[in-house]
Design goal:
heterodimer, A: alpha/beta, six-stranded mixed beta sheet, four-stranded antiparallel beta sheet, 7 helices, B: about 400 residues, six-stranded mixed barrel, two-stranded antiparallel ribbon, 16 helices, about 20% strand, elongated
Chain lengths: ~230, ~400
């Protein structure tokens, strides 16, 4: 079953007076439970594709379906609602809310979903335990290392059981050991909780971990490799 | 505490220096508003009470249209009967009778046109402060016959001192010539130059005799226990007067109708004050607007992330409004608290404005003014600050709605 269906996606940016065609008619389907890397050099269009799949950006043409819902004619609030319930995000620079503690950052998504406080707190602590941040519940982002912040970001992304987690260069700001630890953790969640992960990356380690590798170059899919276990 | 409020409160203190400056601006504006409004209200009350106690009283019972025409024939024919009504009216503290006629008053060398006022000395001292304003000689007594007290400036113009004689000549109620000679018993300085320049007071019985008034008077002057009960007294007296048909031509006027100039002066001063306060509030509102525009500029990326994880633009707007309201409320509470303390201090000790005493004397105010703290003076200004600052904060909060998540997250 496909969790993501993209058909003939085109996207052009205006950079000053120059038009940059970031995506040139890309079509891509992603199956539920996948662990996929969109790889390519800088400017290849992988982050743009990830943003379009996440409803953060609009395609100029083509159709996008996530979790059975078409993005066509969705307004900002509807897209926000879809992201809230179906999509988790992990960003390169962690992007935690600086005034909230680790537990509160994780809780925040559940708060938006209207989950009662007691349940929110319990689930936030459980997921933080799962990502190895026991006893770090009350630390603010500034009091955590880069790796720990990214673990909180992963916990935030998966705590509400989204259909898919989109991770944009999640290991780019981490050293290789921390990055590997993070990937191991996500892999484990993918296997145990059946969470679909889609990475945008040019980190070889992420590509090695991915079970499917989609190589993008100049806004086109260059190669689509499914690895055999 | 909900995460929304927790987030708002913590966001406020992300830049403590800027927050403290903004809160201080709001608090200072509120402090100033509480103090200045209390000062104005206090000075108005002093002005009203002083003017009332010098001459006008809180209320007067007169013949209809006497206030406009000042015609000697428009009288209260049975003042004692009116007095009996007043004896039974709640909140009435005291009352007196007066008769008035415009006449020529001559000393040896000079003649002036003045208002001759017939007063009942025993009652008048309970209504008016003129007895305490005697600067030379002494006040009238019940035994006095052809004696008068004269305003300071009039005495100066006529060139008279206590013991000198004055000739009064006017027209009686019946159209006859009213003339008498009185000796100056005392000279008063009420503080209101216009009154001191144009008035002379003689015993009511003498006035009624000279001006052939029979037993009639022109004014029954009433003092109530406080300003706030005046409308109740007025309503009650009006009701009582209507019961008797012979009182049909009488009317009850309150201090605002008796002294429209004073009321207009107060209204003008209040209007000028409100314009000044509005300008002050607008300056504060710009400070708030700047604070929140800066906050949005600095946190654009964060708002992008909030949108990315599923926060609706409406919720972010709500979050920003909670921040602005919290910030404003802290400033307002601090301003009201400090402003009230300051006002209470001066309400007790007074503010010495003796440098402007000449000007203030025109309103019967001595050199001291006492601010008067009330719910209205403590809350109306800060409420306006709250309303306008929240309005100012709405602009940046609504601006968020135009943000696109990707563009916001790219913001540095």
């Amino acid at each position: 079953m496909n969790i993501v269906e993209c058909t003939e996606i085109n996207k052009t940016y205006q950079q000053g007076k120059v038009e940059v065609q970031a995506l040139r008619g890309i079509s891509l389907n992603i199956k539920k439970g996948g662990f996929i890397a969109l790889a390519g050099p800088s400017g290849s269009g992988k982050t743009t594709l990830l943003n379009i799949i996440g409803g953060l950006d609009h395609a100029d043409s083509g159709t996008v379906n996530v979790d059975g819902q078409s993005f066509d004619k969705m307004n900002q609030s509807q897209l926000a609602n879809l992201r809230l319930h179906s999509i988790g995000f992990v960003f390169q620079s962690y992007n935690l809310i600086p005034v909230l503690s680790a537990a509160e950052n994780v809780e925040f998504v559940m708060l938006l979903q209207g989950i009662p406080a007691a349940e929110r707190q319990g689930r936030a602590r459980t997921i933080l335990d799962d990502v190895g941040l026991k006893d770090k519940y009350d630390r603010r982002p500034a009091e955590l290392s880069g790796g720990q912040q990214q673990r909180v970001a992963v916990a935030r992304a998966i705590v509400s059981n989204p259909s898919i987690v989109l991770a944009d260069e999640p290991t780019a700001n981490l050293d290789s050991k921390t990055g590997q630890g993070l990937l191991e953790m996500m892999k484990k969640m993918n296997v145990e909780k059946k969470v679909t992960f889609v990475f945008s990356t040019h980190d070889q380690m992420v590509m090695d971990y991915a079970r499917r590798l989609v190589l993008i170059h100049d806004g086109l899919i260059d190669n689509d490799l499914v690895k055999k276990n | 505490m909900s995460i929304d409020i927790k987030m708002a409160w913590r966001n406020i203190w992300r830049n403590p220096r800027r927050t403290i400056i903004t809160i201080s601006a709001i608090a200072f504006a509120c402090l100033l508003l509480v103090f200045m409004l209390s000062f104005q209200f206090g000075s108005y009350e002093t002005m009203i009470n002083s003017s009332i106690k010098i001459h006008a009283g809180h209320l007067q019972i007169q013949a209809k249209e006497y206030q406009e025409k000042q015609n000697i024939r428009m009288v209260v024919p049975n003042p004692e009967e009116t007095g009996r009504i007043l004896d039974n009216v709640l909140y009435v503290e005291s009352y007196t009778y007066r008769a008035k006629a415009f006449s020529l008053v001559s000393s040896k060398n000079r003649t002036y046109g003045v208002m001759v006022i017939g007063i009942d000395p025993s009652r008048e001292k309970m209504v008016s402060t003129i007895k305490n304003s005697i600067r030379q000689g002494s006040y009238l007594s019940m035994e006095d016959k052809n004696q008068a007290i004269v305003g300071r400036l009039l005495a100066k113009n006529l060139g008279v001192l206590p013991g000198d004689e004055l000739t009064i000549m006017g027209q009686g109620r019946d159209g006859s010539i009213a003339a008498t000679v009185v000796s100056v018993k005392g000279i008063y300085a009420s503080g209101i130059d216009e009154f001191d320049r144009s008035s002379i007071q003689i015993p009511l019985t003498v006035f009624q005799d000279v001006y052939t008034m029979d037993n009639a008077v022109h004014e029954v002057v009433v003092i109530g226990d406080s300003l706030r009960n005046i409308s109740k007294i007025k309503k009650n007296v009006q009701g009582q007067l209507k019961k008797l048909k012979e009182n049909e031509f009488l009317t009850v006027l309150d201090w605002e109708e008796l002294m429209p100039g004073l009321r207009q002066g107060i209204e003008m001063d209040l209007t000028m004050g409100i314009v000044f306060y509005l300008l002050l509030i607008i300056v504060v509102a710009f400070s708030i607007l700047n604070t929140f525009l800066m906050a949005i500029f600095e946190r654009t990326k964060e708002f992008g992330v909030l949108m990315a994880i599923g926060t609706t633009p409406g919720r972010i707007t709500k979050l920003l409004l909670i921040e602005s309201i919290s910030l404003t409320m802290v400033g307002i509470i601090a301003g009201i608290f400090i402003g009230s303390l300051l006002t209470l201090f001066f309400q007790y000790h007074g503010i010495d404005l003796s440098g402007s005493s000449e000007l203030l004397a025109q309103y019967g105010i001595s050199g001291m003014i006492y601010p008067k703290l009330s719910l209205l003076s403590a809350l109306s200004g800060p409420f306006a600050v709250f309303f306008i600052t929240v309005l100012a904060a709405l602009y940046p909060a609504l601006k968020i709605r135009k943000l696109q998540p990707v563009e916001a997250m790219l913001h540095v």
